[in-house]
Inverse folding.
């Protein structure tokens, strides 16, 4: 649960230097994922929109950091304000944080836990920008992401990550954010994409990535940073952290293989570099809730399954006609579901005593049932709350650029900049 299961069961008091060092390094790795995501997304959009989407990602690094310290952290991890739904305001502005985080017995300074969780809060709304790429108005996005952090991210983080959360109390397992990050961002993306509408010309017009090398570089950075994302969620330099790191590597590798295998066996199909990058990300998405709770071989099965299922899920946007520009719903939403459900199958108490036994470890159907409950509730809340927020912001401020600004491109219409020198080359597409 973002390390929360481990933290609650940790013994002793004070800070362990090795644990502290690992969590601080992991926090840096997770922050590095957001610029990686910016490159991953930036390569997939058209050249006239690359700075626009990179700016949206970098803006999340700024606004979420400040809001997290002021009020986001207390809403997610403050003393429960009732029924396990939201944290109270006792830790506004990080008041009393030196006294510890309610419900946790940490071997790291509470401030280190706070900043590690801040990095999760940064990348989650940044993921949504992939679904609304090429058409999002920056001023509307500023308001949307600020409200979304407090009303969508913080409550779900409290439910699953905080010892006061209601899903936590039910025994739901989520090591590093299958609900909080992946399902949340995936189904929030679906809602946001539905509110802003389809890009002009989609799906009839071909909108090819302008720089696949950018995307592959971004995927590599994400892969590197994900070791901090998952292994750092052990909140210490431990055997569980080691298992989580190994599982992350294998699930990424298996996801890559699964995606390009399915590409290759399709009629006239060829394995693509974009498919390799997407498959690796899908594998890491699926292993995120499982990383510290399953063994080595199950991580390969989970990653491979995610690569196959997420590629198949890309078709959904064409069938149901929602324009998820960069397939956030298919990769993060569906990949998160794959991970949460298969965790109910493969979780093993022998791997992590703070976890539970899943179906394959003779644990019966109980854990699987709890995982399904958490999955459905997180999907429903993320979609419903985000749809309402996006609809209000769109009505009051506007979430979508004008048709002329969309045709011109976000780089110049929203930021008065251009990623590439266009003199003598005609209009940037």
């Amino acid at each position: 649960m973002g390390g929360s299961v481990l933290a609650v069961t940790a013994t002793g008091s004070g800070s362990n230097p090795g644990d502290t060092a690992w969590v601080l390094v992991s926090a840096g790795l997770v922050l590095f994922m957001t610029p990686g995501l910016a490159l991953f997304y930036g390569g997939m959009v058209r050249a006239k929109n690359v700075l626009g989407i990179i700016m949206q990602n970098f803006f999340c690094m700024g606004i979420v950091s400040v809001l997290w310290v002021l009020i986001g952290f207390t809403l997610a991890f403050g003393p429960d304000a009732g029924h396990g739904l939201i944290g109270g305001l006792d830790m506004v502005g990080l008041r009393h944080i030196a006294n510890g985080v309610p419900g946790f017995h940490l071997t790291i300074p509470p401030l280190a836990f706070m900043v590690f969780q801040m990095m999760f809060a940064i990348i989650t709304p940044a993921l949504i920008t992939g679904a609304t790429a090429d058409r999002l108005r920056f001023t509307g996005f500023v308001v949307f992401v600020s409200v979304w952090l407090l009303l969508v991210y913080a409550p779900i983080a409290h439910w699953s990550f905080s010892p006061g959360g209601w899903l936590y109390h039910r025994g739901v397992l989520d090591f590093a954010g299958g609900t909080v990050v992946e399902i949340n961002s995936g189904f929030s993306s679906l809602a946001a994409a539905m509110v802003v509408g389809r890009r002009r010309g989609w799906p009839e017009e071909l909108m090819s990535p302008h720089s696949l090398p950018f995307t592959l570089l971004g995927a590599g950075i994400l892969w590197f940073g994900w070791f901090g994302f998952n292994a750092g969620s052990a909140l210490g330099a431990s055997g569980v952290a080691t298992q989580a790191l190994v599982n992350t590597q294998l699930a990424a590798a298996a996801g890559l293989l699964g995606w390009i295998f399915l590409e290759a066996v399709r009629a006239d199909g060829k394995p693509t570099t974009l498919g390799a990058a997407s498959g690796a990300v899908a594998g890491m998405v699926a292993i995120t809730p499982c990383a510290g709770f399953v063994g080595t071989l199950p991580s390969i099965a989970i990653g491979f399954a995610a690569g196959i299922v997420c590629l198949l899920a890309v078709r959904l946007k064409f069938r149901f006609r929602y324009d998820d520009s960069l397939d956030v719903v298919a990769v993060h939403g569906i990949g998160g579901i794959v991970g949460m459900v298969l965790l109910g199958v493969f979780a093993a108490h022998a791997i992590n005593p703070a976890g539970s036994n899943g179906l394959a470890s003779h644990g019966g159907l109980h854990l699987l049932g709890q995982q399904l409950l958490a999955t459905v509730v997180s999907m429903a809340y993320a979609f419903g709350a985000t749809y309402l927020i996006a609809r209000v912001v769109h009505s009051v401020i506007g979430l979508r650029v004008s048709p002329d600004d969309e045709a011109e491109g976000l780089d110049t219409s929203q930021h008065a900049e251009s990623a590439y020198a266009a003199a003598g080359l005609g209009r940037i597409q």
Q: What stands out?
A: Confidence is low (pLDDT under 50) at residues 1-12, 423-428.
